[in-house]
Description:
Chain A is an alpha/beta fold. Chain A is built from three helices and eight strands; from the N terminus they run βαββαββββαβ. Chain B is of the alpha/beta class.
Amino acid sequence: MVRSMETIATGHPLVQRILDRVGRCIERVREDRPNRVFLEIAPAHNLEVARVLFWDLGARLATISGVDLRDSVEINYHFCFDAEHCVVTVKTWADKPDPHIESLAPIITGAQWVEREINDLIGCTFDHHPGLTRLILADDWPEGVHPLSREYQCPLNREYP
Amino acid sequence: MSWKLWALKKSPWVYHVNTGACNNCDIEVLELLTPRFDVERFGVMLVGSPRHADALLVSGICTRQAAPRLQEVYRQTPKPCVVFCIGACACSRGIFHDAYHTSPVGPVDEVIKQVDPNAIIMYIPGCPPKPEAMILGVVKALNAL
Lengths: 161, 145
């Protein structure tokens, strides 16, 4: 159920096509700049919205970005509609502590490594991921320490001048 | 001077190592080989194996995973060998001084000195250093040898 829509009247025609299919999952639509749409959804619906955008409407998953807000981890899925010149970002969140969210990897193979990177750096766990192992941190990096999370205190390197 | 050193100074063959750089210094190193600066007229050639190299051009802050690999590359380079630290990141880590995931040993020169305390290291600061600065650094290093 779309609760608030801003600039929907002058919005991109793509937005109406998305709302026709998954309007009940989307909580908020924002289009502050032309061709840049932000959809906010509840975390339980990310798989359904991603399936509609990727498989039904033919978008391209550009990347997934994670932001560590103090009490939750915000996950942004960036879908590019190259033919319509529009970028749609799907914003959702996973509550801390121990953030969990459904993985997109079973339906979008390209999301596998991006989710492994978010898991390494921010600490959000992706359920039903085919192989959530360490990707970019070193093998001798301690388990459970996530450098881009708010709790991480980077030790100052003062041993050498 | 020994004939090996004479050959090195006449035509230093370089091998490029990126230990975690943003690639800006790597692009500038590549520019040295383009016709504008053309270090090939000095005999500098980019080789594909450290075994053929006289000089190592190292860029980057030396991350945790890169440190043992950089040491292995240095061990495989036949001595005498000059290590050029290209850019602020390789000289002293620059703005990434206190970053996470960097090697606990230190920046590139500390990592090399852990293997060989008598290593010949030349520092070329800049972000990225101009190609003219790199050529000047190479010339100064070869004159000092």
